Amino acid sequence: MNKRKMYWRMVTSSILRRRSRVLIAVLAVAIGATTLSGLAAIAIDVPSQMAQEMRLYGANLVVVPSEKNDNLTDQTINRIDEVVKSSGSTLVGSAAFDYQPVSINDQPYVAAGTDIDAVKAINPYWYIEGEWPSADGQVLIGREIASTIDAKVGDSITVSQLAEGASSAAPQSGGQDASTAPGTTAMSGAPEIPEGSHMMPDGTIMKNSEMPGYDPSKNVDGIYVGDQPQSAQSGAPTTKKDAIEQLTQNKPTAPVAPGNGKGQAPDPVDTRDISLTVSGILETGGSEDGFLFMSTADMSQLTGKDTSYGVSEYSVAGQAEAVSALAKQINDAVDGVKASTVTRLTHSDEGVLTMLRSLMGMITIIVLALTMIGVSTTMMAVVAERRNEIGLRKALGAHSKSIVREFLGEGVMLGILGGAIGAVLGYLLAIVICLNVFHRTIAFHPLMGVITVLASVIIATLACLIPVRRALDVDPALVLRGE
Questions:
Q1: What is the pTM (predicted TM-score) of this model?
Q2: Which segments in the chain show pLDDT lower than 70?
Q3: Number of domains forming the structure of the chain
Q4: Domain for residue 336, yes or no?
Q5: d(CA 260, CA 177)
Q6: Which of 173, 218, 228, 353 is most buried, taking the most CB atoms under 10 A from its CB?
Q7: Which residues contact 88 (CB under 8 A, 6 or more apart)?
Q8: Residues 45-59: pLDDT tens digits?
Q9: Which residues form the domain of 388?
């Protein structure tokens, strides 16, 4: 029997003779290895799983027309899709929106023509009372609109928009009508509108001073002019909200008849109307509660024009840096668009992952430190038990190096046993956590198992250094005298 075999035989027999104490040390190492292996497996797989889960909360990349273009064409959107696919990013879903100002019961709102199935794919978190629209002629309305017009699921509503070329406001200056020149009477058969009054859309006449938000400075030639949206600022919109405001501002919505405000009855207003059935009521707690969502076919029928999109949203699985890089790629590769990330969502992704990694790192460090303390305490007890044996070996001429090698060998054996057990238990722990949190399993990484065993060996070996030093301090003379 050579020295190496003899050495490992001594180490093994020493461990087997003290099974109870060694078992405690192995369990301490196994607990540390389980924590290390499990949290490491989660840290490797969770970012991708977290990215998938965060995609349930809506798009994280928005593309709007730049100052060069008024809208996004189908060709432009197809080009953007090609860039996204070629980038290697995982596209969860995308949806383009044609936002248009509309009116219901003479109240102005904003409607979005889109692919309803695509919207459903990128916004699975939306709470719908009723059902998503499944065919043309159906509409999804926000909770705010439903409350205002007292609409319920299954009701039929009429959505209106002024036809192309129709006017929704009275002329501001010089707007005399040929039939109502100064000194003439109002049109025959029309109700007389007193000076300083205004005819409401329902036909009632109200004094300008009684109008909500009345301001004398907003009266032009006796005509009440309500608050109008400000003109769009120059430059391309930078957010989805800015894009919607820019797309819908200064566009006529409610079918209010024009008139000169001096006794002239309202002229018939040319509007385009469409009757839609409310299939569901949307409630998100966000701005979506104030929108209508219909199919692009219904929107084209309402506007009388082909669909042209103002915003395209993308839900891309990836961390903040990857999504920002994709936005830059789109801006560089596609002319006439401005792509930007939804900061709230991308930062949420990164913030959650950073916090999760920090938490797992702290837990791992604490558990490994406790593992070292447990192993070191156990080995100290072993040294105390073997004090007479160590003293006798020294008295017989055993070198200190042989004693060090024997104790370190025991530490290596403890690390291998505890690490192997911990690697298996850690993977099972990671599966349980992922199934309960993300409802999916994770892959086993063999390299992670090897790293866990090596880390356990290192931890156990380091934990043996203090007990080894205590063993080297044993005085053979004192031991032989029984002191």
A1: 0.55
A2: 1, 48, 50-56, 163-269, 344-350, 482-483
A3: 2
A4: no
A5: 8
A6: 353
A7: none
A8: 777 676 666 666 778
A9: 3-54+349-480
